[in-house]
Amino acid sequence: MSEGGGLAARGEFAKASVRDAEVGGRRVLARVDFNVPLADADGGRRVVDDTRIRAALPTVELLGDRGAALVLVSHLGRPKGGPDPALSMAPVAARLGELTGADVRLAPAVVGEEVEREAAALAEGDVLLLENSRFEPGETKNDPELAAALARLADIYVNDAFGAAHRAHATTEGVTHHLPSYAGLLLEREVRALTAVRDDPQRPLCVVLGGAKVTDKIGVIERFLAGAEQILIGGAMCFSFFRAQGHGTGGSLVEEEGVALAREVLERAEESDCELVLPTDLVLGRAFDAATEVEHLDGVDVPDGWMGLDVGPRTVERYGAAIGSAGTVFWNGPMGAFELEPFAAGTRGVAEAVAAAPGFTVVGGGDSAAALAEFGLADRVDWLSTGGGASLELMEGRKLPGVEALMDRAEVEATGRK
Ligand code: ADP
Ligand code: MG
User: Fold this and answer.
1) Mean pLDDT across 247-267
2) Which three-class secondary structure state does DSSP give residue 138?
3) Helix (H, G, I), strand (E, B), or coil: what is residue 255?
4) Catalytic residue (one of 318, 366, 380, 418)
5) What pTM was estimated for this model as a whole?
6) Cβ(236) to ligand 1 under 6 A?
7) pLDDT by residue (tens digit) across 378-414?
8) Cα–Cα distance between 250 and 247 in angstroms, integer?
9) What region, left, alpha or beta, does residue 233 occupy, with left being phi > 0 and alpha being psi -120 to 50 degrees?
10) Which is catalytic among the residues 15, 27, 45, 52?
11) Which atom of ligand 1 is nearest to the CA of 369?
12) Residue 180 burial by Cβ neighbours in a 10 Å radius (0-12, 13-18, 19+)
């Protein structure tokens, strides 16, 4: 971890850091990514997985230690057009209180007079968690009035929500037009680690892509055809490639829109120095079901009546060898339907290879991260990104609006603005 940590800290980062902000005695509005899974348990709604809350603790604790009064804001799920009690931040406030030992108060809304009164009454070290930002329809529209109302709650803004940084919303972008805006510690580490992989990897760079759809990952495939030594493909996405090559895909999940894209990628791979590798064997099932009949296929022509639900052992061995000899590994997307035990071996094998790899290893993506955690390997990689869409967009080379909007470090140093 130490070597990787060093590398993770090496990537470029031009934005002003919360470490350099003067926050003592001031109110800080911090955008965090507390979009965590909830479930009904023990007579109430509870946080099922607090990974994202724990990931924000370094910034929350730094601000508290330095005497800031803290106003936290996040979105949670997808409420439809207004407040939804099932998506209240209340369980998150409870969990954050347990993790920090602080008395975390929950605001009655996102913005408004009552919230302004509560924010104004905060003392050093106090924590106020705003309600789910998506209870305000202006959040996803980046409504300037909502942004101004948010800014009235604080003197300084910090963005630590890397997972939401690819969206220009009121809490990630709009509010930066009103307050001095800094990067949180998590957001900075995410950008550094992912940028290091993208722009300055130890060679060879091996990119492992799986998951459901080619269209989700096409930008990353194109980017790395011109920058990686190898791209290893797995997951349902490989069936778009097999269809493009004329193989039978049986009842496998094939994204029709992805077939033409896959064909183009195959053509481009011919001319590029990057080796595009597809599975050579598969695990088949009759249906997307853990109790279905299971068969190994030595080859990739899926017969009718079967669907390809995982990559086979020969493929795992080959992918594992490539991962093990890479200088840098970036993995996004499971190799199969890993939620179903008979089809988890491919994803587990790749996860174990990434965990054991001597190179710098970065994993991004909601389901890949969940798979890694499920296999107990989350702390065996150099960087496990908390951002799915955001990590893919950064890898594609796109600018993230929530990062771009923050003050440049050079600008802060030149003007002394804090
Ligand atoms: P990530 O969140 O890591 O980016 P995706 O969301 O793209 O990953 O894809 C994850 C989903 O893809 C999982 O729910 C998994 O069951 C599904 N999946 C992977 N391979 C297959 C397959 N061969 N057939 C059907 N579903 C698959
Ligand atoms: Mg997913």
Assistant:
1) 96
2) coil
3) coil
4) 366
5) 0.93
6) yes
7) 999 999 999 989 999 999 999 999 999 999 999 888 8
8) 9
9) beta
10) 52
11) 3
12) middle
Tokens of 159: 């963005």
Using one digit for the tens of pLDDT, what is the confidence trace for 56-105?
999 999 999 999 999 999 999 999 989 999 999 999 999 999 999 999 99
For this structure, is 64 an active site residue?
Answer: no
- State whether the beta carbon of 261 lies less than 6 angstroms from ligand 1: no
List, for residues 1-57, the tens digit of each pLDDT value: 334 444 445 667 999 999 999 999 999 999 999 999 999 988 889 999 899 999 999
Distance CA(213)–CA(281), nearest Å, equals 20
Q: 176: Cβ below 6 Å to ligand 1?
A: no
C-alpha closest to that of 262 among 276, 235, 232, 241 = 241
Segment (H or E) for 105: strand 104-106
The packing angle between helices 313-324 and 345-356, to 10°, is 20
Which of 354, 332, 371 has its CA nearest to residue 218? 332
CA 314 to ligand 1 center in whole angstroms: 20
**Active-site residue, 366 included:** yes
Residue-wise pLDDT for 294-324, tens only, equals: 999 999 999 999 999 999 999 999 999 999 9
**From 367, 392, 396, mutation site for ligand 1 pocket: most ligand atoms within 8 A of C-beta:** 367
Task: Give the number of whichever ligand sits closest to the CA of residue 366.
Answer: 1
